[in-house]
Structure formats: structure tokens, C-alpha cells
Amino acid sequence: MENFFNYITKPVRPEDVDVWFRSNNIIPEKLELFYDFTYSLNKTIVDTYLGNTTGNETKIVMTTDDIENHFKWCWNRTVENFRKESITFNITGEHYEYYNSFFLDTFYNQKNDEIRNSIDGFFDDLFDTQKPFTKSDLDMISSIYKVLEKNISK
Prior knowledge:
Oligomer: single chain
Number of domains: 1
Low-confidence stretches: none
Radius of gyration: 17 Å
Largest sheet: none
Mean pLDDT: 91
Number of strands: 0
Distance between the termini: 42 Å
Number of helices: 8
Order of helices and strands: HHHHHHHH
């Protein structure tokens, strides 16, 4: 249990982060691009989703097909927006499955509004190279980086 606690909370020394980035071929500028992609996708999802509203607004019930179609539309729009800037991501692939699974769990199927509303802050924190990283952060960054790296045209 102590090892797990250290894994998710104990900061890694900055020089070890540099070694981690170099050994995993993580280029800071490309990491920033992948943050931009992730941020854009999240913003598109949040700004266009009609279900699970709170307050005085009418709650719209979204079916599984509606959710899948919404994510696919947001994904295609994000990919197309990057393509307009001559940055070409594949439409389908492991990266699509990775983000689809993430957003199904943390946004679409999430009952807790606080968690749903914290996704942008989570990505801001995760991709912030100026803050101390934990081993857990480095593993997540590496996973996202590798899955997007495999699915971007060079």
C-alpha cells in the first residue's frame, strides 16, 4: 500500500523526469501539441453535450448510441480542426479507443458533476511540465504521448 501511495503522490526529482522523457522519446513541443489536442477534444465535448444538465434546465436523456455519436462527432471535428492546421491525426485507431474509453468513464457515464467538471483541470495539471511529476503522472503522460504519436502523420 505504501508503494502505491508513493506512486501516486511522491514527486519525482526534475532530473529523473528529464531522464524519463528522454528514455521515452518525449519531445516537449510534441507533448504540448498533444495537450492542445486533448484540451480541444475535451472542450468540444463539454461545450456541445446536451445531456446531464443541472439547475433549472431540462435534463435530456442520452442513449448509448447518442453518446457514441456525440463522441464520434466531437472526435472528427477535433481531428478536422487540426488537419486544417496541417497536423494530421488518424481518425480511427488506438488513440480513438483510449479517449473514447476515458470520456465514457469520466464524463458521459459519470454521475458526479464535480468529477465531470474537473476533467479540464486534470489535463491542465497532467500536462503542466513546470510542476513536479509523480510516477503515476509520468506513466499517464507516456501512455497518452505514445498512443497519439502512433496515430499522427509525420
